[in-house]
Amino acid sequence: MIEVEHLVKKFGDFTAVNDLSFTVARGQVMGFLGPNGAGKSTTMKMITGFLRPSSGTARIMGMDICDHMLAAQRHFGYLPEGAPAWPDMTPRAFLQFITQIRGLDKAAARAAEARAIEMTELHGVLDQPIDTLSKGYRRRVGLAQAIVHDPDVLVMDEPTDGLDPNQKFQVRRAITDMARDKAIIISTHILEEVDAVCGAAMIIDRGQIVAEGTPSALAARSRYSGTVTLTLAHEQLPAAQNLLQNINHRSAELVTRGDESTLHIFAADGTEPGALLADMRAAIGAAGLAPRALALETGRLDDVFGALTGKARPAAAPFHATGMENDKGAAS
Amino acid sequence: MMRALTAITAREFAGYFTTPLAFVFIIVFLLANGLATFYLGAYFAMGQADLTSFFMFHPWLYLFFLPAISMRLWAEERRNGSIELLLTLPIPLTAVVIGKYLAALAFSALALALTFPIWLTVNYLGEPDNGVIFASYVGSLMLAGGYLAIGSCLSALTRNQVIAFVISVVVCFLFTVSGAPLVLELFDGWAPQALIETLAGFSLLTHFRAITGGVIDMRDVMFFATLIGVFLMATVIVVDMKKAEGA
To answer: How far apart are CA A145 and CA A141, in angstroms?
Structure first.
Protein backbone atom coordinates (compact mmCIF):
# COMPACT_ATOMS: atom_id res chain seq x y z
CA MET A 1 0.00 0.00 0.00
CA ILE A 2 0.93 3.63 -0.40
CA GLU A 3 0.99 6.11 2.46
CA VAL A 4 1.71 9.73 1.69
CA GLU A 5 2.31 12.03 4.62
CA HIS A 6 2.42 15.81 4.48
CA LEU A 7 4.30 15.85 1.22
CA VAL A 8 5.62 19.28 0.26
CA LYS A 9 7.68 20.28 -2.75
CA LYS A 10 8.96 23.78 -3.28
CA PHE A 11 10.85 24.97 -6.34
CA GLY A 12 12.34 28.22 -5.13
CA ASP A 13 9.41 30.39 -4.09
CA PHE A 14 6.90 28.27 -5.95
CA THR A 15 5.10 25.58 -3.98
CA ALA A 16 4.27 22.79 -6.41
CA VAL A 17 2.89 20.37 -3.83
CA ASN A 18 1.52 21.71 -0.59
CA ASP A 19 1.06 19.33 2.32
CA LEU A 20 -0.48 16.37 0.55
CA SER A 21 -1.54 13.35 2.60
CA PHE A 22 -3.46 10.27 1.50
CA THR A 23 -3.30 6.49 1.51
CA VAL A 24 -4.06 3.92 -1.13
CA ALA A 25 -4.84 0.43 0.11
CA ARG A 26 -4.30 -2.87 -1.66
CA GLY A 27 -7.13 -3.52 -4.07
CA GLN A 28 -7.73 0.17 -4.60
CA VAL A 29 -7.23 2.29 -7.71
CA MET A 30 -6.78 5.93 -6.83
CA GLY A 31 -7.38 8.47 -9.56
CA PHE A 32 -5.35 11.62 -9.38
CA LEU A 33 -7.19 14.44 -11.10
CA GLY A 34 -6.18 17.98 -11.69
CA PRO A 35 -5.44 20.58 -14.30
CA ASN A 36 -1.98 20.68 -15.86
CA GLY A 37 0.52 22.03 -13.38
CA ALA A 38 -1.58 21.06 -10.37
CA GLY A 39 1.24 18.96 -8.94
CA LYS A 40 0.18 15.47 -10.03
CA SER A 41 3.45 14.54 -11.71
CA THR A 42 5.55 16.21 -9.03
CA THR A 43 3.76 14.14 -6.39
CA MET A 44 4.39 10.93 -8.33
CA LYS A 45 8.03 11.83 -8.82
CA MET A 46 8.36 12.22 -5.05
CA ILE A 47 6.52 8.99 -4.25
CA THR A 48 8.87 7.08 -6.55
CA GLY A 49 12.05 8.72 -5.28
CA PHE A 50 12.93 10.68 -8.39
CA LEU A 51 12.45 13.99 -6.60
CA ARG A 52 13.32 14.59 -2.99
CA PRO A 53 10.44 16.14 -1.02
CA SER A 54 11.04 19.52 0.60
CA SER A 55 9.32 17.96 3.61
CA GLY A 56 7.05 15.06 4.40
CA THR A 57 7.49 11.58 3.02
CA ALA A 58 5.82 8.61 1.37
CA ARG A 59 5.89 4.94 2.32
CA ILE A 60 5.56 2.08 -0.14
CA MET A 61 4.55 -1.19 1.57
CA GLY A 62 5.77 0.38 4.81
CA MET A 63 9.15 1.35 3.35
CA ASP A 64 10.04 5.01 3.58
CA ILE A 65 11.03 6.39 0.18
CA CYS A 66 13.46 8.86 1.72
CA ASP A 67 15.16 6.58 4.22
CA HIS A 68 14.93 3.22 2.44
CA MET A 69 14.67 4.21 -1.16
CA LEU A 70 15.90 1.00 -2.79
CA ALA A 71 13.74 -1.22 -0.61
CA ALA A 72 10.72 0.91 -1.45
CA GLN A 73 11.56 0.99 -5.15
CA ARG A 74 11.62 -2.81 -5.33
CA HIS A 75 7.91 -2.84 -4.51
CA PHE A 76 6.57 -0.60 -7.21
CA GLY A 77 6.35 -0.27 -10.94
CA TYR A 78 6.38 3.25 -12.30
CA LEU A 79 5.25 4.69 -15.59
CA PRO A 80 6.71 8.21 -15.67
CA GLU A 81 5.06 11.08 -17.51
CA GLY A 82 5.46 10.63 -21.27
CA ALA A 83 6.54 6.96 -20.90
CA PRO A 84 10.27 7.57 -21.39
CA ALA A 85 12.47 4.73 -22.63
CA TRP A 86 15.79 4.40 -24.40
CA PRO A 87 14.92 5.11 -28.03
CA ASP A 88 17.65 2.92 -29.49
CA MET A 89 16.51 -0.25 -27.67
CA THR A 90 13.91 -2.72 -28.86
CA PRO A 91 10.98 -3.47 -26.53
CA ARG A 92 12.39 -6.99 -26.05
CA ALA A 93 15.85 -5.76 -25.02
CA PHE A 94 14.25 -3.04 -22.90
CA LEU A 95 12.12 -5.51 -20.93
CA GLN A 96 15.09 -7.85 -20.51
CA PHE A 97 17.12 -4.97 -19.14
CA ILE A 98 14.39 -4.15 -16.64
CA THR A 99 14.00 -7.75 -15.41
CA GLN A 100 17.77 -8.02 -15.07
CA ILE A 101 17.91 -4.81 -13.03
CA ARG A 102 14.96 -6.01 -10.96
CA GLY A 103 16.94 -9.13 -10.15
CA LEU A 104 14.63 -11.79 -11.62
CA ASP A 105 16.39 -15.04 -12.42
CA LYS A 106 16.45 -16.15 -16.02
CA ALA A 107 13.42 -18.45 -16.11
CA ALA A 108 11.28 -16.11 -14.02
CA ALA A 109 12.41 -13.18 -16.16
CA ARG A 110 11.37 -14.84 -19.44
CA ALA A 111 7.98 -15.77 -17.96
CA ALA A 112 7.46 -12.27 -16.58
CA GLU A 113 8.41 -10.68 -19.91
CA ALA A 114 6.00 -12.96 -21.79
CA ARG A 115 3.18 -12.07 -19.39
CA ALA A 116 3.83 -8.32 -19.67
CA ILE A 117 4.03 -8.56 -23.47
CA GLU A 118 0.74 -10.47 -23.45
CA MET A 119 -1.00 -7.87 -21.28
CA THR A 120 0.19 -4.91 -23.33
CA GLU A 121 -0.06 -6.70 -26.71
CA LEU A 122 3.41 -5.87 -27.89
CA HIS A 123 3.99 -9.05 -29.94
CA GLY A 124 4.14 -7.30 -33.29
CA VAL A 125 6.83 -4.76 -32.42
CA LEU A 126 9.19 -6.63 -30.11
CA ASP A 127 12.23 -6.24 -32.34
CA GLN A 128 11.75 -2.72 -33.62
CA PRO A 129 13.68 0.14 -32.03
CA ILE A 130 11.41 2.01 -29.63
CA ASP A 131 11.91 5.36 -31.40
CA THR A 132 10.32 3.93 -34.56
CA LEU A 133 7.14 2.97 -32.68
CA SER A 134 3.91 4.95 -32.61
CA LYS A 135 2.99 6.94 -29.52
CA GLY A 136 0.47 4.28 -28.49
CA TYR A 137 3.03 1.48 -28.70
CA ARG A 138 5.60 3.50 -26.80
CA ARG A 139 3.08 4.04 -24.03
CA ARG A 140 2.43 0.31 -23.91
CA VAL A 141 6.16 -0.42 -23.76
CA GLY A 142 6.27 1.91 -20.75
CA LEU A 143 3.34 0.06 -19.22
CA ALA A 144 4.95 -3.33 -19.83
CA GLN A 145 8.08 -2.10 -18.09
CA ALA A 146 6.04 -0.96 -15.08
CA ILE A 147 4.18 -4.24 -14.60
CA VAL A 148 6.80 -6.76 -15.70
CA HIS A 149 7.89 -7.71 -12.16
CA ASP A 150 4.30 -7.95 -10.90
CA PRO A 151 4.77 -5.20 -8.28
CA ASP A 152 2.55 -4.66 -5.23
CA VAL A 153 2.22 -1.01 -6.05
CA LEU A 154 1.76 0.69 -9.41
CA VAL A 155 2.25 4.38 -10.01
CA MET A 156 1.23 5.50 -13.48
CA ASP A 157 1.35 9.03 -14.81
CA GLU A 158 -1.31 9.33 -17.53
CA PRO A 159 -1.26 5.70 -18.62
CA THR A 160 -3.71 6.14 -21.50
CA ASP A 161 -2.38 9.38 -22.93
CA GLY A 162 -1.92 9.07 -26.68
CA LEU A 163 -3.83 5.81 -27.03
CA ASP A 164 -6.74 5.34 -29.39
CA PRO A 165 -10.15 4.48 -27.88
CA ASN A 166 -9.66 0.71 -28.28
CA GLN A 167 -6.24 0.80 -26.68
CA LYS A 168 -7.58 3.00 -23.90
CA PHE A 169 -10.24 0.41 -23.24
CA GLN A 170 -7.65 -2.39 -23.15
CA VAL A 171 -5.35 -0.54 -20.80
CA ARG A 172 -8.22 0.33 -18.48
CA ARG A 173 -9.32 -3.28 -18.46
CA ALA A 174 -5.77 -4.37 -17.68
CA ILE A 175 -5.63 -1.89 -14.79
CA THR A 176 -8.95 -3.12 -13.45
CA ASP A 177 -7.76 -6.74 -13.70
CA MET A 178 -4.57 -5.99 -11.82
CA ALA A 179 -6.31 -3.88 -9.20
CA ARG A 180 -7.46 -6.84 -7.13
CA ASP A 181 -4.12 -7.44 -5.44
CA LYS A 182 -2.32 -4.16 -5.96
CA ALA A 183 -2.44 -0.59 -4.77
CA ILE A 184 -2.57 1.62 -7.85
CA ILE A 185 -2.31 5.36 -8.41
CA ILE A 186 -3.05 6.78 -11.83
CA SER A 187 -3.07 10.41 -12.84
CA THR A 188 -5.28 11.55 -15.64
CA HIS A 189 -7.09 14.52 -16.99
CA ILE A 190 -9.66 12.32 -18.70
CA LEU A 191 -12.65 12.36 -16.39
CA GLU A 192 -14.40 9.35 -17.88
CA GLU A 193 -11.30 7.35 -17.03
CA VAL A 194 -11.83 8.01 -13.36
CA ASP A 195 -15.35 6.65 -13.64
CA ALA A 196 -14.12 3.67 -15.61
CA VAL A 197 -11.28 2.43 -13.41
CA CYS A 198 -10.95 4.30 -10.13
CA GLY A 199 -12.59 3.28 -6.89
CA ALA A 200 -11.47 6.54 -5.34
CA ALA A 201 -10.52 9.87 -6.76
CA MET A 202 -8.77 12.98 -5.64
CA ILE A 203 -8.94 16.36 -7.31
CA ILE A 204 -5.86 18.43 -6.72
CA ASP A 205 -5.25 22.02 -7.64
CA ARG A 206 -2.22 24.20 -6.92
CA GLY A 207 -0.65 21.36 -5.00
CA GLN A 208 -3.54 20.78 -2.63
CA ILE A 209 -6.35 18.28 -2.41
CA VAL A 210 -9.57 20.15 -3.13
CA ALA A 211 -11.87 17.13 -3.10
CA GLU A 212 -11.69 13.41 -2.55
CA GLY A 213 -14.09 10.49 -2.48
CA THR A 214 -15.55 7.90 -4.78
CA PRO A 215 -16.13 9.17 -8.31
CA SER A 216 -19.89 9.08 -7.82
CA ALA A 217 -19.68 10.94 -4.50
CA LEU A 218 -17.54 13.57 -6.19
CA ALA A 219 -19.95 13.82 -9.09
CA ALA A 220 -22.82 14.31 -6.66
CA ARG A 221 -21.22 17.59 -5.62
CA SER A 222 -22.19 18.99 -8.98
CA ARG A 223 -24.82 21.72 -8.80
CA TYR A 224 -26.70 19.75 -11.41
CA SER A 225 -26.84 16.73 -9.17
CA GLY A 226 -30.48 16.04 -8.40
CA THR A 227 -31.81 18.07 -11.30
CA VAL A 228 -34.07 16.70 -13.97
CA THR A 229 -32.66 16.94 -17.45
CA LEU A 230 -34.98 17.28 -20.38
CA THR A 231 -33.48 17.10 -23.86
CA LEU A 232 -35.57 18.04 -26.86
CA ALA A 233 -35.50 19.58 -30.33
CA HIS A 234 -35.37 23.39 -30.51
CA GLU A 235 -38.88 23.68 -31.92
CA GLN A 236 -40.31 21.87 -28.91
CA LEU A 237 -39.06 24.56 -26.52
CA PRO A 238 -42.23 26.68 -26.44
CA ALA A 239 -44.22 23.56 -25.58
CA ALA A 240 -41.78 22.81 -22.76
CA GLN A 241 -42.14 26.35 -21.54
CA ASN A 242 -45.89 26.00 -21.30
CA LEU A 243 -45.53 22.71 -19.58
CA LEU A 244 -43.15 24.03 -16.93
CA GLN A 245 -45.64 26.70 -15.88
CA ASN A 246 -47.74 24.07 -14.26
CA ILE A 247 -44.95 22.24 -12.51
CA ASN A 248 -43.64 23.00 -9.07
CA HIS A 249 -39.90 23.74 -9.53
CA ARG A 250 -37.34 26.26 -8.32
CA SER A 251 -35.68 27.27 -11.56
CA ALA A 252 -34.45 25.98 -14.89
CA GLU A 253 -31.43 26.49 -17.10
CA LEU A 254 -31.09 26.08 -20.82
CA VAL A 255 -28.13 24.74 -22.75
CA THR A 256 -28.29 24.40 -26.51
CA ARG A 257 -25.97 22.19 -28.46
CA GLY A 258 -26.32 21.36 -32.14
CA ASP A 259 -29.99 20.90 -32.91
CA GLU A 260 -30.91 20.04 -29.34
CA SER A 261 -31.86 22.01 -26.31
CA THR A 262 -31.25 20.68 -22.84
CA LEU A 263 -33.16 21.98 -19.87
CA HIS A 264 -31.81 21.48 -16.37
CA ILE A 265 -34.76 21.76 -14.03
CA PHE A 266 -34.04 22.27 -10.34
CA ALA A 267 -36.49 20.83 -7.86
CA ALA A 268 -38.28 23.29 -5.54
CA ASP A 269 -36.85 23.50 -2.05
CA GLY A 270 -38.06 20.71 0.15
CA THR A 271 -39.17 18.45 -2.67
CA GLU A 272 -37.57 15.26 -3.91
CA PRO A 273 -35.94 15.20 -7.34
CA GLY A 274 -37.74 11.91 -7.89
CA ALA A 275 -41.11 13.60 -7.40
CA LEU A 276 -40.14 16.28 -9.92
CA LEU A 277 -39.16 13.61 -12.41
CA ALA A 278 -42.54 11.88 -11.93
CA ASP A 279 -44.40 15.21 -12.37
CA MET A 280 -42.42 15.95 -15.52
CA ARG A 281 -43.07 12.55 -16.95
CA ALA A 282 -46.80 12.82 -16.32
CA ALA A 283 -46.98 16.35 -17.80
CA ILE A 284 -45.02 15.36 -20.89
CA GLY A 285 -47.30 12.38 -21.40
CA ALA A 286 -50.40 14.58 -21.02
CA ALA A 287 -49.08 17.17 -23.50
CA GLY A 288 -48.14 14.50 -26.03
CA LEU A 289 -44.59 15.88 -26.20
CA ALA A 290 -41.88 13.48 -27.42
CA PRO A 291 -38.59 14.58 -25.85
CA ARG A 292 -35.29 12.99 -26.81
CA ALA A 293 -34.39 12.28 -23.23
CA LEU A 294 -35.68 12.80 -19.75
CA ALA A 295 -33.55 11.76 -16.83
CA LEU A 296 -32.52 12.41 -13.29
CA GLU A 297 -29.03 13.85 -13.24
CA THR A 298 -26.68 12.17 -10.76
CA GLY A 299 -24.04 14.80 -11.26
CA ARG A 300 -21.11 15.16 -13.56
CA LEU A 301 -17.48 14.98 -12.62
CA ASP A 302 -16.44 17.62 -15.13
CA ASP A 303 -18.72 20.17 -13.47
CA VAL A 304 -17.19 19.47 -10.11
CA PHE A 305 -13.71 19.50 -11.60
CA GLY A 306 -14.33 22.87 -13.28
CA ALA A 307 -15.93 24.40 -10.20
CA LEU A 308 -13.18 23.23 -7.84
CA THR A 309 -10.21 24.10 -9.99
CA GLY A 310 -11.51 27.57 -10.79
CA LYS A 311 -12.04 26.96 -14.45
CA ALA A 312 -15.81 26.56 -14.48
CA ARG A 313 -17.41 26.76 -17.86
CA PRO A 314 -19.78 29.63 -18.60
CA ALA A 315 -23.05 29.06 -16.79
CA ALA A 316 -26.10 27.96 -18.73
CA ALA A 317 -28.69 30.61 -19.54
CA PRO A 318 -31.59 30.89 -17.11
CA PHE A 319 -34.79 29.55 -18.59
CA HIS A 320 -37.99 31.11 -17.42
CA ALA A 321 -41.21 29.26 -17.67
CA THR A 322 -43.34 32.34 -18.21
CA GLY A 323 -43.26 35.66 -19.96
CA MET A 324 -39.81 35.40 -21.48
CA GLU A 325 -38.62 35.01 -25.02
CA ASN A 326 -36.07 32.32 -25.44
CA ASP A 327 -33.68 32.94 -28.24
CA LYS A 328 -32.90 29.35 -28.89
CA GLY A 329 -30.22 30.04 -31.53
CA ALA A 330 -28.04 32.33 -29.43
CA ALA A 331 -26.73 30.13 -26.66
CA SER A 332 -24.23 27.45 -27.43
CA MET B 1 24.44 -4.52 -7.13
CA MET B 2 26.91 -6.33 -9.41
CA ARG B 3 24.15 -7.64 -11.63
CA ALA B 4 22.57 -4.20 -11.94
CA LEU B 5 25.97 -2.66 -12.66
CA THR B 6 26.67 -5.23 -15.38
CA ALA B 7 23.23 -4.63 -16.87
CA ILE B 8 23.78 -0.87 -16.96
CA THR B 9 27.24 -1.17 -18.50
CA ALA B 10 26.09 -3.70 -21.11
CA ARG B 11 23.07 -1.62 -22.08
CA GLU B 12 25.10 1.54 -22.30
CA PHE B 13 27.92 -0.08 -24.26
CA ALA B 14 25.52 -1.66 -26.75
CA GLY B 15 23.91 1.78 -27.07
CA TYR B 16 27.09 3.15 -28.68
CA PHE B 17 26.73 0.76 -31.58
CA THR B 18 23.06 1.24 -32.42
CA THR B 19 23.99 4.22 -34.57
CA PRO B 20 26.77 4.48 -37.16
CA LEU B 21 28.16 7.28 -35.05
CA ALA B 22 30.31 4.88 -33.06
CA PHE B 23 31.98 3.56 -36.19
CA VAL B 24 32.49 7.04 -37.55
CA PHE B 25 33.99 8.04 -34.22
CA ILE B 26 36.43 5.12 -34.20
CA ILE B 27 37.49 5.67 -37.80
CA VAL B 28 38.05 9.40 -37.30
CA PHE B 29 39.93 8.68 -34.08
CA LEU B 30 42.23 6.21 -35.85
CA LEU B 31 42.79 8.59 -38.77
CA ALA B 32 43.59 11.47 -36.42
CA ASN B 33 45.99 9.22 -34.57
CA GLY B 34 47.71 8.24 -37.78
CA LEU B 35 47.97 11.80 -39.05
CA ALA B 36 49.34 13.06 -35.76
CA THR B 37 51.89 10.30 -35.52
CA PHE B 38 53.18 10.38 -39.08
CA TYR B 39 52.95 14.09 -39.95
CA LEU B 40 53.11 16.05 -36.71
CA GLY B 41 55.20 13.44 -34.95
CA ALA B 42 57.41 12.78 -38.00
CA TYR B 43 57.43 9.12 -37.10
CA PHE B 44 59.62 7.96 -39.98
CA ALA B 45 62.01 10.88 -39.84
CA MET B 46 62.71 10.12 -36.19
CA GLY B 47 64.14 6.82 -37.27
CA GLN B 48 63.46 5.33 -33.85
CA ALA B 49 61.82 2.02 -33.14
CA ASP B 50 59.42 3.27 -30.50
CA LEU B 51 55.94 4.78 -30.28
CA THR B 52 56.81 8.07 -28.58
CA SER B 53 55.50 10.09 -31.50
CA PHE B 54 52.28 8.07 -31.33
CA PHE B 55 51.56 8.44 -27.62
CA MET B 56 52.71 12.05 -27.28
CA PHE B 57 49.60 13.27 -29.07
CA HIS B 58 47.11 11.28 -27.04
CA PRO B 59 46.43 13.96 -24.41
CA TRP B 60 45.55 16.44 -27.17
CA LEU B 61 43.51 14.00 -29.24
CA TYR B 62 41.62 12.80 -26.18
CA LEU B 63 40.87 16.38 -25.29
CA PHE B 64 38.40 16.52 -28.16
CA PHE B 65 37.47 12.90 -28.69
CA LEU B 66 36.60 11.83 -25.16
CA PRO B 67 34.26 14.69 -24.24
CA ALA B 68 32.35 13.63 -27.35
CA ILE B 69 31.82 10.25 -25.69
CA SER B 70 31.16 11.48 -22.17
CA MET B 71 28.85 14.34 -23.13
CA ARG B 72 25.92 12.02 -23.70
CA LEU B 73 26.33 10.00 -20.49
CA TRP B 74 23.86 12.05 -18.43
CA ALA B 75 22.79 14.96 -20.59
CA GLU B 76 21.02 12.61 -23.00
CA GLU B 77 19.20 10.71 -20.24
CA ARG B 78 17.96 14.00 -18.89
CA ARG B 79 16.84 15.25 -22.28
CA ASN B 80 14.85 12.17 -23.25
CA GLY B 81 13.43 11.67 -19.77
CA SER B 82 14.84 8.17 -19.29
CA ILE B 83 16.75 9.47 -16.27
CA GLU B 84 13.45 9.29 -14.40
CA LEU B 85 13.16 5.62 -15.23
CA LEU B 86 16.79 4.93 -14.39
CA LEU B 87 16.66 6.64 -11.00
CA THR B 88 13.39 5.03 -9.92
CA LEU B 89 14.67 1.51 -10.54
CA PRO B 90 16.01 -0.20 -7.41
CA ILE B 91 19.69 0.36 -8.11
CA PRO B 92 22.11 2.40 -6.01
CA LEU B 93 22.99 5.67 -7.72
CA THR B 94 26.68 4.79 -7.40
CA ALA B 95 26.12 1.66 -9.49
CA VAL B 96 24.45 3.70 -12.21
CA VAL B 97 27.27 6.24 -12.25
CA ILE B 98 29.99 3.58 -12.33
CA GLY B 99 28.12 1.41 -14.82
CA LYS B 100 27.72 4.25 -17.29
CA TYR B 101 31.31 5.33 -16.79
CA LEU B 102 32.64 1.82 -17.40
CA ALA B 103 30.74 1.60 -20.67
CA ALA B 104 32.34 4.84 -21.87
CA LEU B 105 35.73 3.60 -20.73
CA ALA B 106 35.25 0.26 -22.51
CA PHE B 107 34.34 2.07 -25.70
CA SER B 108 37.47 4.23 -25.45
CA ALA B 109 39.55 1.13 -24.70
CA LEU B 110 38.17 -0.46 -27.86
CA ALA B 111 39.12 2.58 -29.94
CA LEU B 112 42.57 2.56 -28.36
CA ALA B 113 42.99 -1.19 -28.95
CA LEU B 114 42.20 -0.70 -32.62
CA THR B 115 45.41 1.30 -32.99
CA PHE B 116 47.25 -2.06 -32.82
CA PRO B 117 48.47 -1.87 -36.47
CA ILE B 118 50.92 0.80 -35.41
CA TRP B 119 52.31 -1.57 -32.83
CA LEU B 120 52.63 -4.28 -35.50
CA THR B 121 54.34 -1.76 -37.80
CA VAL B 122 56.93 -0.72 -35.27
CA ASN B 123 57.68 -4.36 -34.48
CA TYR B 124 58.02 -5.11 -38.18
CA LEU B 125 60.37 -2.18 -38.76
CA GLY B 126 62.59 -2.63 -35.78
CA GLU B 127 62.92 -4.02 -32.30
CA PRO B 128 61.08 -1.68 -29.94
CA ASP B 129 60.90 -2.06 -26.17
CA ASN B 130 57.47 -3.68 -25.95
CA GLY B 131 57.46 -3.18 -22.18
CA VAL B 132 57.52 0.58 -22.67
CA ILE B 133 54.79 0.31 -25.31
CA PHE B 134 52.63 -1.75 -22.97
CA ALA B 135 53.14 0.75 -20.15
CA SER B 136 52.27 3.54 -22.55
CA TYR B 137 49.04 1.84 -23.55
CA VAL B 138 48.15 1.44 -19.87
CA GLY B 139 48.99 5.09 -19.27
CA SER B 140 46.92 6.15 -22.25
CA LEU B 141 43.92 4.22 -20.96
CA MET B 142 44.30 5.80 -17.50
CA LEU B 143 44.49 9.20 -19.15
CA ALA B 144 41.30 8.40 -21.05
CA GLY B 145 39.73 7.30 -17.75
CA GLY B 146 40.59 10.64 -16.21
CA TYR B 147 39.08 12.65 -19.05
CA LEU B 148 35.94 10.51 -19.07
CA ALA B 149 35.41 10.89 -15.32
CA ILE B 150 35.65 14.67 -15.67
CA GLY B 151 33.28 14.51 -18.64
CA SER B 152 30.81 12.33 -16.74
CA CYS B 153 30.52 14.87 -13.94
CA LEU B 154 30.07 17.79 -16.30
CA SER B 155 27.51 15.90 -18.39
CA ALA B 156 25.41 15.46 -15.24
CA LEU B 157 25.19 19.23 -14.86
CA THR B 158 23.21 19.89 -18.01
CA ARG B 159 20.64 18.46 -20.37
CA ASN B 160 22.41 19.99 -23.34
CA GLN B 161 25.08 17.76 -24.87
CA VAL B 162 26.83 20.61 -26.69
CA ILE B 163 27.26 22.53 -23.45
CA ALA B 164 28.50 19.34 -21.77
CA PHE B 165 31.03 18.89 -24.57
CA VAL B 166 32.36 22.44 -24.49
CA ILE B 167 32.69 22.62 -20.70
CA SER B 168 34.37 19.21 -20.65
CA VAL B 169 36.92 20.28 -23.27
CA VAL B 170 37.70 23.42 -21.28
CA VAL B 171 38.06 21.67 -17.93
CA CYS B 172 40.08 18.79 -19.40
CA PHE B 173 42.26 21.36 -21.15
CA LEU B 174 42.97 23.11 -17.85
CA PHE B 175 43.81 19.79 -16.21
CA THR B 176 46.17 19.05 -19.06
CA VAL B 177 48.00 22.33 -19.69
CA SER B 178 48.66 22.92 -16.03
CA GLY B 179 51.63 20.61 -16.56
CA ALA B 180 52.72 21.86 -19.96
CA PRO B 181 56.17 23.52 -20.01
CA LEU B 182 54.64 26.63 -21.59
CA VAL B 183 52.38 27.21 -18.61
CA LEU B 184 54.93 26.24 -15.98
CA GLU B 185 57.45 28.67 -17.47
CA LEU B 186 54.98 31.49 -16.87
CA PHE B 187 55.25 30.84 -13.17
CA ASP B 188 58.93 30.10 -13.21
CA GLY B 189 61.15 32.54 -11.43
CA TRP B 190 58.58 34.41 -9.40
CA ALA B 191 56.17 31.81 -7.99
CA PRO B 192 57.31 29.56 -5.17
CA GLN B 193 58.59 26.20 -6.36
CA ALA B 194 55.98 24.42 -4.25
CA LEU B 195 53.16 26.09 -6.18
CA ILE B 196 54.68 25.14 -9.51
CA GLU B 197 55.08 21.57 -8.38
CA THR B 198 51.52 21.42 -7.11
CA LEU B 199 50.28 22.82 -10.38
CA ALA B 200 52.27 20.32 -12.37
CA GLY B 201 51.16 17.60 -9.96
CA PHE B 202 47.53 18.19 -10.87
CA SER B 203 48.22 17.83 -14.53
CA LEU B 204 47.23 14.67 -16.34
CA LEU B 205 50.03 15.45 -18.76
CA THR B 206 52.78 15.21 -16.14
CA HIS B 207 51.59 11.83 -14.91
CA PHE B 208 50.91 10.53 -18.41
CA ARG B 209 54.41 11.48 -19.55
CA ALA B 210 55.90 9.74 -16.52
CA ILE B 211 54.13 6.50 -17.42
CA THR B 212 54.90 6.67 -21.15
CA GLY B 213 58.51 6.97 -20.12
CA GLY B 214 58.17 3.27 -19.44
CA VAL B 215 57.78 3.21 -15.67
CA ILE B 216 54.39 2.52 -14.14
CA ASP B 217 54.98 4.32 -10.87
CA MET B 218 52.42 3.70 -8.13
CA ARG B 219 52.18 7.44 -7.49
CA ASP B 220 51.04 8.09 -11.06
CA VAL B 221 48.54 5.24 -10.88
CA MET B 222 47.26 6.63 -7.58
CA PHE B 223 46.91 10.04 -9.17
CA PHE B 224 44.67 8.73 -11.93
CA ALA B 225 42.71 6.49 -9.57
CA THR B 226 42.09 9.40 -7.21
CA LEU B 227 41.15 11.77 -10.01
CA ILE B 228 38.67 9.24 -11.43
CA GLY B 229 37.28 8.46 -7.97
CA VAL B 230 36.81 12.12 -7.10
CA PHE B 231 35.04 12.97 -10.33
CA LEU B 232 32.77 9.92 -10.20
CA MET B 233 31.88 10.83 -6.63
CA ALA B 234 31.20 14.37 -7.83
CA THR B 235 28.94 12.87 -10.53
CA VAL B 236 26.94 11.04 -7.84
CA ILE B 237 26.65 14.26 -5.84
CA VAL B 238 25.56 16.31 -8.86
CA VAL B 239 22.90 13.78 -9.92
CA ASP B 240 21.68 13.56 -6.34
CA MET B 241 21.55 17.32 -5.94
CA LYS B 242 19.41 17.58 -9.06
CA LYS B 243 16.91 15.28 -7.35
CA ALA B 244 16.39 17.88 -4.66
CA GLU B 245 16.30 20.77 -7.09
CA GLY B 246 13.96 18.97 -9.42
CA ALA B 247 15.74 20.20 -12.49
So the answer is: 6
| pLDDT tens digit sequence for B77-110 | 999 899 999 999 999 999 999 999 999 999 999 9
- Out of A48, A71, A86, the one facing B82 most closely (by C-beta) is A86
- For chain A, give every domain's residue range: 2-219, 228-318
Please provide residue A202's backbone torsions phi and psi, each rounded to the nearest 5 degrees. -140, 130
Cα–Cα nearest to A141, from A154, A129, A155: A129
Q: Do B88 and A50 touch (CB under 8 A)?
A: yes
What residues of B are in contact with residue A42 (Cβ under 8 Å)? 246
Q: What is the ipTM of this complex?
A: 0.87
Residues 86-125 of chain B with CB under 8 A from chain A are 87-92
Q: What is the pTM of this model?
A: 0.85
**Taking the domain A2-219, which CATH number applies?**
3.40.50.300
Q: Search chain B and give the residue with CA nearest A51.
A: B243
Q: Nearest to residue A87, comparing CAs of B81, B71, B72, B163? A: B81
CATH 3.30.300 fits A228-318, yes or no: no
> CA end-to-end span of chain B, whole Å?
27
Single-letter residue type at A221: R
DSSP secondary structure of A290-323: --SEEEE----HHHHHHHHTT-PPPPPEE--SSS
Q: What's the rounded Cα separation, in Å, for the pair A114 and A111?
A: 5
